């Protein structure tokens, strides 16, 4: 199977709706929150060259887009998704690596960050050199956090004044001296346990609020 990963152009507009549907259905299947995006928003990213798409025999196989915040001081990768027909082949990791390198070229001084509940994404980020950080080290741009409004966990984020949620914040600072292997090796068992603790704490607080 030959899959090419390229910077998006207008010719990829036709995949925008399918990308949005795949992102949403994947989130529902995992039972996780998600910041929804419209096909129009995805097409805008495509037109500006702020995204990469994986194509297999003319079909959409995977996707990820870039967002910059605070005048390019921070960069985030969002909407990382692989079509169900092309999963279990390491494609997500390949797309993320391509977007990561592309971001470093376009924004060489920017801190690259992300928030996620997915252990698979955490593992990929860790292998690229990201480290888990508190939300206070991420962008303060209200536009970024406003993008979480369509996530089912947004009330939790609001209650914590954008300082904590079920997502884990991860950051790559190009000014830090990187090592191989990464300085912050991924420990799935530890992060999974922390995720469960965080979920339990928030659940207890929600129950206490209504009692």
From TrEMBL:
Pfam families: Acetyltransf_1. Residues 11-151 form the N-acetyltransferase domain. SUPFAM superfamilies: Acyl-CoA N-acyltransferases (Nat) (SSF55729). PROSITE patterns: GNAT. This is GNAT family N-acetyltransferase.
């Amino acid at each position: 199977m030959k899959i090419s990963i390229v910077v998006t152009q207008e010719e990829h507009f036709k995949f925008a709706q399918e990308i949005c549907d795949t992102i949403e259905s994947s989130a529902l299947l995992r039972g996780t929150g998600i910041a929804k995006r419209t096909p129009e928003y995805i097409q805008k990213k495509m037109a500006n060259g702020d995204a990469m798409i994986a194509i297999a025999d003319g079909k959409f196989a995977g996707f990820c887009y870039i967002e910059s915040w605070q005048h390019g001081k921070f960069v985030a990768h969002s909407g990382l998704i692989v079509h169900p027909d092309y999963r279990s082949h390491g494609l997500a990791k390949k797309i993320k690596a391509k977007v990561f390198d592309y971001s470093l070229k376009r924004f060489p001084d920017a801190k690259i960050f992300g928030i996620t509940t997915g252990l698979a994404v955490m593992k990929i980020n860790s292998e690229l050199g990201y480290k888990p950080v508190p939300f206070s080290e991420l962008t303060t741009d209200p536009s970024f956090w406003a993008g979480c409004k369509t996530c089912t966990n947004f009330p939790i984020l609001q209650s914590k004044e954008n300082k904590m949620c079920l997502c884990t914040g991860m950051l790559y600072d190009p000014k830090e001296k990187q090592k191989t292997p990464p300085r912050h090796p991924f420990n799935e068992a530890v992060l999974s346990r922390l995720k469960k603790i965080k979920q339990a704490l928030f659940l207890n607080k929600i129950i206490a609020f209504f009692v």
